[in-house]
Amino acid sequence: MTPLAELLADRIRRYGPITFADFMRECLYHPVHGYYSMTESTRFADYYTSVDVHPIFGRLLARQFSEMWECLDRPPEFTLVEAGAGVGRLAAHILDFSESKFPPFYGALRYVAVERSAARREQASVRAKRHADAGHFEASIEIPPRIPMGCLFSNELADALAVHRVVMKDGALREIFVGISDGRFVDNVAGLSTCAITEYFAAQGVSLQEGQQAEAGLEACDWITEVGRRIERGYVLTIDYGHRAAELFDDHHMRGTLLAYRDHRATENYYDSPGEQDLTAHVNFSALETWGKRAGLETAGLVSQTAFLLALGRGNEFADLYGEGQTEVERARARLQLKTLIYPEGMGERFQVLIQQKGTATSQLTGLAGIS
Ligand SMILES: C[S@@+](CC[C@H](N)C(=O)[O-])C[C@H]1O[C@@H](n2cnc3c(N)ncnc32)[C@H](O)[C@@H]1O
Questions:
Q1: Phi/psi at 194 (nearest 5 deg)?
Q2: Domains of the chain by range and CATH?
Q3: CA of 84 to the centre of ligand 1 (A)
Q4: Average pLDDT of 137-157?
């Protein structure tokens, strides 16, 4: 048993089974033993994200953000909030590129890297020190209370927010709690812990089939609601793997989408080694749209990462891939890395980009140009 497993087992023995959302939150974010509370030393052993593939990912995003700034009539201050910014790798790519390619945009840029883990916030501050010293960067534990004009974006944050697990049993929605038996964590099926779960499925017109398991991402609904409240004018851009509800809860997903990641292997052993493996669930983009709309966010579009990056890179034939003085071998390697990001069998079709907007004239953003 890991130290966190001992703590969780003790809590369950004393107070009874806990929701999977509570279990997942502790596994990922317990201040001492949570997977994301540790420094990043073991990260590449378990997973990597688009950010780690090549800086072109951040450079094309910078192009999209600078266009958003133009669409908002070039305000003197543009707040760019990155939620779940990790160690600030993407922040550095975006800030470096904006500084060199779009100086007027960089001049207006106030980049806020929001990260729940103190260790990662510290790493981000070190990495972006030059931009912080110039007044363009800060790391924060919280989304700013007001975002007067700007964009809030995230890459692989929403899939790391805690979910409840449910199952349709004898025609009724039941919840899968985490209990303990013979010293091991086990599923415990019982009545729903909150009526918000019923509302979650009803609001999206979803009814599960008999025996179907699924996740209810209530934390993601709360998150987008809060984002919608705080942003006054601008955009929300969410990159993650997932689907709209019609696909997420279809026949192909009878066991839900929850996965545990360790050593680049995905398993359904959610209860193994709490705090030492990643837990994720596919993002329900319909829920982000529905709850976003309630908070004033209109959907501008949902496209695959392939379509998004192709639309932004096509203009200059992906010249942003290359750095000065690179050899032909380095340039060839960069082209291969780009393929990982955009090819359907790589990250391209698995990842989706949702853009929502508030208080902006409906403008056609380049990243969404692939929408028919
Ligand atoms: C899968 S990692 C992705 C990191 C980075 N965005 C990337 O693409 O490499 C998710 C990150 O989100 C952070 N996180 C999760 N929930 C958060 C929240 N509510 N506010 C801020 N950060 C959060 C985690 O600590 C973790 O660093």
A1: -155, 145
A2: 37-162+217-368 (3.40.50.12710)
A3: 3
A4: 98
**Which amino acid residue places its CA nearest to atom 20 of ligand 1?**
116
| Shortest-distance atom of ligand 1 to CA 48 | 9
Rounded to an integer, the average pLDDT of 202-224 is: 97
Distance of CA 144 to the CA centre of its chain: 18
Find out whether the beta carbon of 289 lies less than 6 Å from any atom of ligand 1: no
CB 185, CB 179: distance < 8 Å: yes
Burial of 172 (0-12, 13-18, 19+ CB in 10 A): exposed
Query: What integer is the mean pLDDT of 295-302?
Result: 97
265 C-alpha to ligand 1 centroid (Å): 20
CB of 155 closer than 6 angstroms to any ligand 1 atom? yes
Mutating to test ligand 1, I would choose from 35, 36, 61 the residue with most ligand atoms within 8 A of its C-beta, which is 36
CA of 114 to the centre of ligand 1 (A): 8
